[in-house]
């Protein structure tokens, strides 16, 4: 029996056919190195081998750097293209900035569902817990929407995106939100709402074709106005917060780009938008959390003990207004940095036409949560708040067919139901995983 390890195992069964070449090879090797010219050839071969190895290494290094950056690379471009793919006749390809944000996520889904191509953009900053933004991202991913991780101030990245996709529209929702936080971090408002806006407009102006732009302004531009309801033609020159001032500046800046470069612009003044997947920094959201945890809620009150009021607007109504704005937006008229003819410039209030006081909002939450709130009523601090907001929406009604249908009772009920699902999964699982799970369980209609 031949041993497996033994040399004989490898010998052919028919002697004579197999020639043991080891001696011959040995001889050839010696003969080869014995000649100087072949030695020179071997040396040359080794030098070439080493050089190719080194250049291959540097290629691998540089391409892995390229691939591991937040944007760029073949795979990234593929994802962008696939996400921008249009699935309906005469559909749009829309760049949605702030796509992992509250309004951005909802608008992206609505557009994708009807067959438009969407590319999201978000910097996932930590103004509030980015876990919620990541959960919204999972929700969008499950609908084949890719969110580019990047900042609107990154002009190279924006140029690259416009290079890859001929966007027909830009839905610009990325912003530093929050009225009171502006006193803590004023520069973040300048960074996102002014510098970021200009960088984005530059990219849109340079793009060929130029996209039509719809962007989020704010009800806060009405500032300390006393005339109600607020109409688009009312004065907007007395902002009460830096947030409001940067949104007002945005309206002036977009007007300039419309005037000089022919960009088609629609600015939407949102009125205190709320609903499922909302922003945890907003009062209705933080009050819900506090009521459930038995903690007090601080209710601000205006001068002469007057209750503050807001024209709370439900997210689904806002989404309809955004989509209608895209649908009615005319094309930009510029190219190569020059305007060919005047372009469309519009501003609309997107509100609910029916302000509700903050104590009434707390009352509705108490009813839906089946729990009393511990209210601490304090004078409104001078931190940028305005006493009330109330939208005149006749322009949006006429030109966009905008018609809000959800009152605060109904809207907060839907929010509380979503919050219940959140809490249920958070209590049973870890926060990140449960929000991720929630993105599959709770999908907006
Ligand atoms: O329409 C907008 O343009 C803005 O809407 C939203 O701002 P606001 O209307 O101020 O919403 P929000 O903070 O929920 O306070 C609601 C009410 O609760 C009162 N409020 C607030 C906090 C608190 O602790 N106590 C309190 O009484 C408070 O005084 C107010 O009366 C967006 O956040 C903002 O990004 C912007 O989009």
UniProtKB/TrEMBL annotation:
Bilayer topology: Multi-pass membrane protein
One of the record's GO molecular function terms: UDP-glucuronate 4-epimerase activity
Enzyme class: isomerase
Predominant location category: Golgi
Residues spanning the membrane: 39-56
CC annotations in GO: Golgi cisterna membrane
Keyword ATP-binding: no
Enzyme Commission numbers on file: 5.1.3.6
This protein's UniProt keywords: Isomerase, Membrane, NAD, Transmembrane, Transmembrane helix
Chain ranges of the NAD-dependent epimerase/dehydratase domain: 94-331
Localization terms from the record: Golgi apparatus, Golgi stack membrane
Catalytic activity: UDP-alpha-D-glucuronate = UDP-alpha-D-galacturonate
Alphabetized InterPro entries for the sequence: Epimerase_deHydtase, NAD(P)-bd_dom_sf
Protein family: Belongs to the NAD(P)-dependent epimerase/dehydratase family.
Subunit structure comment from the entry: Homodimer.
Name this protein carries in UniProt: UDP-glucuronate 4-epimerase
Lineage, top ranks: Eukaryota, Viridiplantae, Streptophyta, Embryophyta, Tracheophyta
């Amino acid at each position: 029996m031949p041993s497996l390890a033994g040399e004989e195992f490898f010998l052919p069964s028919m002697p004579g056919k197999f020639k043991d070449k080891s001696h011959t090879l040995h001889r050839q090797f010696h003969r080869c190195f014995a000649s100087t010219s072949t030695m020179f050839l071997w040396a040359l071969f080794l030098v070439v081998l080493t050089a190719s190895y080194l250049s291959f290494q540097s290629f691998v290094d540089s391409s892995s750097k390229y691939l591991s950056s937040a944007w760029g690379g073949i795979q990234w471009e593929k994802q962008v293209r696939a996400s921008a793919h249009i699935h309906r006749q005469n559909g749009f390809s829309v760049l949605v900035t702030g796509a992992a944000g509250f309004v951005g996520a909802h608008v992206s889904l609505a557009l994708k569902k009807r067959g438009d191509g969407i590319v999201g953009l978000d910097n996932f900053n930590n103004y509030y817990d980015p876990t919620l933004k990541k959960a919204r991202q999972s929700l969008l991913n499950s609908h084949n929407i890719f969110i580019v991780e990047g900042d609107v101030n990154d002009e190279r990245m924006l140029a690259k995106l416009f290079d890859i996709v001929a966007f027909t529209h830009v839905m610009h929702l990325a912003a530093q939100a929050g009225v009171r936080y502006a006193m803590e971090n004023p520069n973040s408002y300048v960074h996102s709402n002014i510098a970021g806006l200009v960088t984005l407009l530059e990219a849109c102006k340079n793009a060929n074709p130029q996209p039509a732009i719809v962007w989020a302004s704010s009800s806060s531009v009405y500032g300390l106005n006393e005339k109600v309801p607020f109409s688009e033609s009312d004065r907007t020159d007395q902002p009460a917060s830096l947030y409001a001032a940067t949104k007002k500046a945005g309206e002036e800046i977009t007007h300039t780009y419309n005037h000089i470069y022919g960009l088609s612009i629609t600015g939407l003044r949102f009125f205190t938008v709320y609903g499922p997947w909302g922003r945890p920094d907003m009062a209705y959201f933080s009050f819900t959390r506090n009521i459930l945890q038995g903690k007090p809620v601080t209710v601000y009150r205006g001068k002469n003990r007057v209750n503050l009021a807001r024209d709370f607007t439900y997210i689904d109504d806002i989404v309809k207004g955004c989509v209608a704005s895209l649908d009615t937006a005319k094309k930009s008229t510029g190219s190569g940095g020059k305007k060919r003819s005047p372009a469309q410039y519009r501003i609309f209030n997107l509100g609910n036409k029916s302000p509700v006081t903050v104590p009434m909002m707390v009352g509705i939450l108490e009813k839906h949560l089946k729990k009393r709130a511990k209210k601490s009523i304090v004078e409104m601090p001078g931190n940028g708040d305005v006493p009330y907001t109330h939208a005149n929406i006749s322009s949006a009604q006429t030109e966009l067919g905008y018609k809000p249908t959800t009152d605060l009772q109904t809207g907060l009920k839907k929010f509380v139901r979503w919050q219940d699902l959140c809490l249920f999964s958070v209590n049973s699982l870890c926060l990140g995983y449960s929000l991720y799970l929630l993105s599959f369980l709770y999908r907006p209609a």
